Amino acid sequence: SRRRHTRCREVSWARRCVQETANIQNQISILILQLNSLAQNVLEGAMKADPNDIFYQHSDSEDWQRLKGHYSIVENVSVNFDTEYQKWEQGMQRLEASCNYSLKKEGDFSSFLSTGFNMIYYNLFSCNAKEQGKLFISMSQVNLLAKFWGMMDMNPYVKYLYTRALPTVNYHKVIFIPKLLHNLTIEDLSRRRMASKVGVCPNFQFNKLELAKGQYVKIRIISETPLRLESPSENRKNKNSVLRQPDNGEKTILIHVHGGGFLAGTSGTHQHFLRKWAKKIPDCVIMSIDYRHAPEFGHPAVLDDVWQGYYWIITQCKAQLGIQPKTILIAGDSAGGNLVMGVVLRALHTNVRMPNGILLGYAALNLSLKYFVPSILLALDDYLLGFNCLMICLNSYVKEGDPSTDPYLSPVLINDEDLAQFPPIRLVVSGRDPLRDQSYKMFDRLMKLGKDVYLKEYKKFPHGIWSHDMPYGIQECKYSVTDAAAWMKELISKHENNLNSVSYTHL
Fold first, then answer.
1. pLDDT of residue 299
2. If exposure means fewest CB atoms within 10 Å of the residue's CB, which of 3, 90, 444, 466 is most exposed?
3. Which pLDDT belongs to residue 24?
4. How many CA atoms lie within 13 A of 474 on its CB side?
5. Over the stretch 105-133, which tens digit does the pLDDT of each residue have?
6. How far is it, in rounded angstroms, from Cα 84 to Cα 86?
7. How many Å is the Cα radius of gyration of the chain?
8. How far apart are CA 344 and CA 131, in angstroms?
9. What residues form DSSP beta bridges with 177?
10. Which residue from 322, 179, 175 is spatially nearest to 246, judged by alpha carbons?
11. Which of helix, strand or coil describes residue 218?
């Protein structure tokens, strides 16, 4: 019995030694990857950084004084935030550690089941979760990263659980619209003229199978106000004749473009905050545009999908949907913010109606590594946007063009003449986001041009603050979703007041 007990202790000690050795090896691997990323992607840009940039000036400088009154920093939203954030961070570590194994399995059900069992294991034995999670983010390949970020839409079992937790709205429908213009090319973007029209019937469909692959764009319509819509394929013999819808009245149109690093995400995975906006903004119809993903499709194909969706909404909303747009807003989060700025710039260059306001959430406004901002250093230890993730997104999306010179890839490079013609802009950033300072740079430029702009920073929050307002997310993120809705109502009010003042002047 004593010999057996001694043997068990030796085996237990050996297992601990093996586990500790593996942990040390993982930590060394992560450190090497971080140092390599620092050397390759940061040092050169940091050495060439402009000392006159706003990031290197004292808070009492003239530039920072000019910004006062146009930005605010939210330090704490509740007394329990630090505890909630710590729980979320530990949950992310366990999820990433679980996905490090489960996402490599074939089949949706086996992957879902494996993730569940791994989550149980890491909840019981959480000591290894942090290292394994960091290892996943630091060494993940593009296919695994796309699966991880797109889990809520790609895995039917996770998707089912997600949709069951969504707030209810009075109208929710997905439509598929044809592309009315020829596909954008790099040459088109360099010229200030509209691409030629394809000449197809503008009718939308509820069934994507009726449209040729690659020639349609998916749009998700969300509204708290009931709408009456019917498809040309329903109750009509001639599908090529333009369908006139019942009159749905004057509405605010909010065009949304989702994030996901250009790799993942859909309008469906962002419904939790879109539906809340639909409830909070009166007479608002939200139209969220989907686009094809990198690495299969990159720039300018991805931008073309969003541009085609925007153009269809602008030109066909009254005839096809029976909605008279009174105010048009456009919002984008993360990669979607990048695409939103590209669409607005394209509308300006081609004399298409521009939106009356822009809302950008933690937007990727600069895709060039040549321009250094201090917040990029946060990527060294970030659970969502590590350097490896950022490089995968950049290399997968930038198929054509140069992000160090092309404003359609890096909107922070839009020239002053064009930027001066942009509508009012509201910027949301997170203090723990590697992309934070890109928005500050855009904010500074807009202020120098005397534009209507405001920025709000949520000091202790991570990237993707709107997306974390969901079950098992960060509950305090609900305040950022509410604040965004209040901003949009303010932009609507400003536009309507301008319309009223113009009407009064013409009397």
1. 95
2. 3
3. 63
4. 28
5. 666 666 666 666 666 666 766 667 777 77
6. 5
7. 24
8. 42
9. 217
10. 322
11. strand
**Which residues does residue 73 pair with via DSSP β-bridges, in sequence order?**
457
For the record, the structure tokens of 99 come out as 């996905």
Query: Taking all residues of the chain, what is their mean pLDDT, rounded to a whole number?
Result: 84
**Residues comprising the chain, all counted:** 507
Long-range pairs, 184-190, Cβ under 8 A, ≥24: 184/300, 184/301, 184/303, 184/304, 184/307, 184/346, 185/300, 186/300, 186/400, 186/401, 188/300, 189/300, 189/346, 189/401, 189/406, 189/408
Cβ of 348: how many Cβ atoms within 10 Å?
A: 18
Token duo for residue 197: 């029209």
Structure tokens at 392: 């995968």
Do 505 and 494 touch, CB atoms closer than 8 A? no
Q: What is the DSSP letter of 428?
A: E
Q: Which residues contact 143 (CB under 8 A, 6 or more apart)?
A: none
Name the residue type at position 228: R
The answer to whether 331 and 256 are in contact (CB under 8 A) is yes
| DSSP at 249 | -
Evaluate if residue 505 carries a pLDDT over 50: no
Query: pLDDT tens, 80-104?
Result: 888 888 888 888 878 777 776 666 6
Over the stretch 281-337, which tens digit does the pLDDT of each residue have? 999 999 999 999 999 999 999 999 999 999 999 999 988 899 999 999 999 999 999
Count CB atoms within 10 A of the CB of residue 120: 12
